[in-house]
Amino acid sequence: MSTDENEAVVRRFYDELWNRWGLEVADEVVSETVEFRGSLGKWARGRNAFKAYVEALRRAFPDWRNEIDEMVAAGDRVAVRMTWSGTHEGTIDGIEPTGARVEYCGAAFFLIKSGVIEKAWVVGDTNAFWQTLREAC
Predict the structure, then answer these.
(1) pLDDT tens digits, 86-118
(2) Which of 5, 16, 70, 112 reaches 20 to 30 Å from 25, CA-CA?
(3) Using an 8 Å Cβ cutoff, are 134 and 104 in contact?
(4) What residues contact residue 134 under an 8 Å CB cut-off, 6+ apart?
(5) Sign of the C-alpha dihedral, residues 95, 97, 102, 107?
(6) Residue 71: enclosing H or E segment and its boundaries?
(7) Counting Cβ atoms within 10 Å, is residue 2 exposed (0-12), middle (13-18) or buried (19+)?
(8) C-beta separation of 105 from 83 below 8 A
(9) Fold of the CATH domain 3-136
(10) pLDDT digits (tens, 9 = 90+) for 15-28
């Protein structure tokens, strides 16, 4: 696949799957055996585990937003600089809803094979995320 096609996979991953909560898109852009590490440090191995991760975040932050600030692709690799935001309306890691608005930045690194995401490693400034939630408690 071309770098443009690989970038398009990552854009669908964020725009359709995450931002619109189109979980069915995972069946099209995420490998059955995906290895996914989310920015909050959680691992999901396999598409079903990944979908469970997405659903858990959706329950905690129903208005979660993933903004792509910059994207670079080379071969089967795609790197993205991101900004994430949302309102804490559900329990996450034992923290009851606070109503706090969180925003933090980071990066995501993808390996794309045959049009699907095989691996994703997402890292972010989670200190800002957790501090916002703690201060709101």
Answers:
(1) 999 999 999 999 999 999 999 999 999 999 999
(2) 70
(3) no
(4) none
(5) positive
(6) strand 65-74
(7) exposed
(8) yes
(9) Nuclear Transport Factor 2; Chain: A, (3.10.450)
(10) 999 999 999 999 99
């999901």: which residue's tokens? 44
What sign does the CA torsion over 9, 12, 14, 18 have? Answer: negative
13: DSSP letter: I
Check: CB of residue 102 under 8 Å from CB of residue 90: no
Residues in the chain: 137
Rounded to an integer, what distance in angstroms lies between the CA atom of residue 127 and that of residue 137?
16
Domain boundaries, the chain: 3-136
| CA dihedral sign, ordered 60, 87, 28, 126 | negative
Q: pTM above the 0.70 mark?
A: yes
